[in-house]
From TrEMBL:
Protein known as: DNA-binding GntR family transcriptional regulator
SMART domains found in the cross-reference section: FCD, HTH_GNTR
PROSITE patterns, per database record: HTH_GNTR
Alphabetical list of Gene3D superfamilies matching this protein: GntR ligand-binding domain-like, Winged helix-like DNA-binding domain superfamily/Winged helix DNA-binding domain
Domain of life: Bacteria
Amino acid sequence: MKRTRGTGWKNVYETLRNEILALTLAPGQLLDEMTLAERFDMSRSPVREALIRLGADELVVTLSNRSTIVAPIEIATFPKYVEALDIAQRMNTRLAAALRTDTDLKIIAKRQKQFEAAVKTGNHLAMSEANKEFHMAIAHAGKNQYLASFYEKLLSQGQRMLHLHFEYLERTHEGYLLTDEHTLMLDAIRDKNVDLADELAHAHTRQFQDNFINFMRENYTTDVALGRLRAAE
């Protein structure tokens, strides 16, 4: 099929984004424009445009020598990341419980069903995308575009870490926890139980935090020292 002029970068962007989120392209891996241009059978201009947009998503980093690499997963800043995620998750979920409409509730329930279907496939990329859509449906129900935008950025930044979280859950056979927690959050929002929604959102963040740290301890204990963290109260 013939590509519409000026749209070539979209295919490069979407393909590389998926590969980065799925960890097919490892953190720190070099992304050479010429090599990518040959791979996608196009000039370097659309490849460069795709890399610029991936940079805006904070998925790639341009170094001082102008080479581009897949953005590292910054373990040292994880405590600050999870602190911000906890606050954003709790605030958006509280607002959703207080302000949701029947239409909002239907959308959240639909996103939850889609997440459950993604879990059954075992495809981590599909799972992380469906997880993000579920939580963003909650955020939109909270009716605060600033908090929702902040939350979306954090969820996007955490998708690669979520893949490691999924690996840990699968290996320990605790994958059911995610779908169960989502169902409980949905129920609290349906009942307009603000305090319970807050509590569940906090527990949801803490489960992600603990499992990610356990994964890192198992796989990178030589290079990374991680103490037990406590999510923001």
